[in-house]
Amino acid sequence: MTDDKNNIQLSAVEDHDGILTIRGGGAQRNWNGIHYKQGMSAKNVGTKNLSANIATIPPGGVAYAHIHVDFEVILYIIEGRVRHEFGAGLKQVVENEEGDFIYIKPGVPHEVFNMSKTEPVVAIGRLPRRSLMRRRVRC
């Protein structure tokens, strides 16, 4: 069964009486230049306070300026290099690479650039369950 609105494959979840598994990360959805694996959340495994997924920015890709409204995000870069332009007017810059953790505070405008023209950026994201309140912004 698939929840088409959110591209969630409920049948991808294996319930082993207390331990739930999604093999291969499940279906993919796209938002703002980022490709997301289905991951786990309240929508498919019934989490109460968290969700996690894999985000990929394709070679040369950009996750255009956006804000995480009222929630924080932690990312771990599995592969690739990114440049965040952030803050008022997106005038601050920080670069991160494979092995780095990134914490993004609520309400910080940011735009994310894959620094490679040939390799994707792949990150694991951990965020609160009620984190669907994102919006693209002009900074």
Search tags:
5-stranded antiparallel beta sheet, Jelly Rolls, single chain, 1 helix, 15 strands, globular, 139 residues, mainly beta
Question: What's the arrangement of secondary structure elements?
Answer:
Elements: E1 2-3, E2 8-9, E3 13-15, E4 20-22, E5 28-31, E6 34-37, H1 42-45, E7 51-57, E8 62-68, E9 73-79, E10 81-86, E11 92-97, E12 101-104, E13 110-114, E14 121-127, E15 134-136
Antiparallel strand pairs: 1-2, 3-4, 5-6, 6-7, 7-14, 8-13, 8-15, 9-12, 9-14, 10-11, 10-13
Quick rundown:
This protein is an all-beta fold.
Task: Tell me about this structure.
By secondary structure, the chain is mainly beta. It has a single domain, classed as Jelly Rolls (Sandwich). 3% of the residues lie in helices and 50% in strands. The protein has one helix and 15 strands, in the order ββββββαβββββββββ. The chain has a six-stranded antiparallel sheet with strand order 5-6-7-14-9-12, with no helix packed on it. It is globular and about 50 Å long. The protein starts with a strand and ends with a strand.
Q: What is the CATH domain class?
A: Mainly Beta
Structurally, how many domains make up the residues? 1
- Count of DSSP E strands? 15
Query: What is the CA-CA span between the terminal residues?
Result: 40 Å
User: Fraction of residues in helices?
Assistant: under 10%
- What is the CATH third-level topology name? Jelly Rolls
| Largest sheet, spatial ordering of strands | 5-6-7-14-9-12
Poorly predicted runs are 1-5
Radius of gyration: 15 Å
Number of helices: 1
CATH architecture term: Sandwich
CATH superfamily: Jelly Rolls
Strand content: over 45%
> Mean of residue pLDDT?
83
Net shape = globular
